[in-house]
């Protein structure tokens, strides 16, 4: 039986077959997500508040987690404090040993860190959760990178990686709080490949109370990253740890 893999691209039947498969994918249950429990997750910037919090939550949920830092000893100290089997390593080793890599570094070190790890991140699924923000006496405000967003900058710097964007709107305080057993929030996931965004959604769903929701392609990442400035204003006014819930999905 002839399949698309054996039909020349110049044959009209090739386009028809691709279109048929695309339509079938659209009919797929959007909540039918893959099992990610066997993947090793690395967290670059894992000694910072956001990185530590994500590492703690994922490891507590049973994920194998490695946190990375510029200094291996600092990562190892933080990993020992987190427990739950978390390991620490320098950023390069963390990237090499991981299947999925979360980028949680400060914005001002974002480009330099990714440039230095291009080889180690080749072929990896990269989740960028960095929010480019500025602060002045009026509070937090969004910055717009030349590439459009932090995630798009990551994609430009890592052409051989599969870059997605997620985990922007999470409170580091709640992530690290052992007395908070569920985090009631949605995670907006962006990327170019459904297979990759499904993996990220599934990873988010491992954390109790959390749900990953597809929110578009990377060109839409800027407004997702920017929303954090608004959440900071909400949290300051109401003394809260606000997140995001999407209705009717």
Question: What can you see in these coordinates?
Answer:
With 249 residues, the chain is an alpha/beta fold. Helix content is 38%, strand content 19%. The protein has 9 helices and 10 strands. It has an 8-stranded mixed β-sheet. It has a two-stranded antiparallel ribbon with strand order 6-7. Strand 9, helix 8 and strand 10 form a beta-alpha-beta unit. The radius of gyration is 19 Å and the shape is globular.
List the helices and strands and how they pair.
Blueprint: H1 12-26, E1 40-44, H2 49-60, E2 64-69, H3 72-82, E3 87-90, H4 91-97, E4 100-103, H5 110-116, E5 125-128, E6 133-136, E7 139-142, H6 150-157, E8 162-165, H7 172-176, E9 185-191, H8 194-204, E10 210-214, H9 221-238
Parallel strand pairs: 1-2, 1-4, 2-3, 4-5, 5-8, 9-10
Antiparallel strand pairs: 6-7, 8-9
């Amino acid at each position: 039986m002839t399949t698309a893999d054996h039909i020349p691209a110049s044959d009209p039947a090739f386009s028809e077959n691709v279109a048929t498969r695309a339509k079938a994918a659209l009919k797929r249950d959007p909540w039918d997500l893959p099992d990610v429990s066997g993947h090793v997750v690395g967290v670059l910037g894992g000694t910072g508040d956001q990185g530590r919090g994500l590492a703690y939550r994922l490891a507590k949920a049973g994920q194998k987690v490695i946190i990375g830092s510029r200094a291996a000893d600092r990562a190892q100290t933080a990993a020992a404090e987190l427990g739950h089997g978390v390991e620490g390593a320098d950023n390069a080793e963390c990237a090499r040993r991981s299947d999925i890599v979360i980028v949680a570094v400060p914005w001002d070190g974002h480009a330099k860190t990714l440039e230095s790890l291009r080889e180690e991140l080749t072929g990896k699924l990269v989740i960028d959760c960095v929010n480019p923000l500025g602060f002045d006496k009026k509070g937090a405000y969004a910055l717009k990178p030349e590439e459009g967003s932090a995630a798009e900058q990551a994609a430009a710097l890592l052409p051989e990686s599969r870059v997605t964007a997620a985990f922007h709107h999470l409170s580091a305080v709640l992530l690290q709080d052992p007395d908070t057993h569920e985090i009631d929030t949605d995670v907006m996931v962006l990327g170019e490949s459904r297979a990759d965004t499904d993996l990220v959604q599934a990873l988010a769903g491992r954390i109790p109370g959390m749900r990953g929701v597809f929110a578009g392609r990377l060109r839409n990442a800027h407004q997702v990253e920017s929303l954090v400035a608004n959440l900071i204003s909400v949290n300051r006014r109401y003394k809260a740890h606000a997140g995001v819930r999407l209705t009717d999905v």
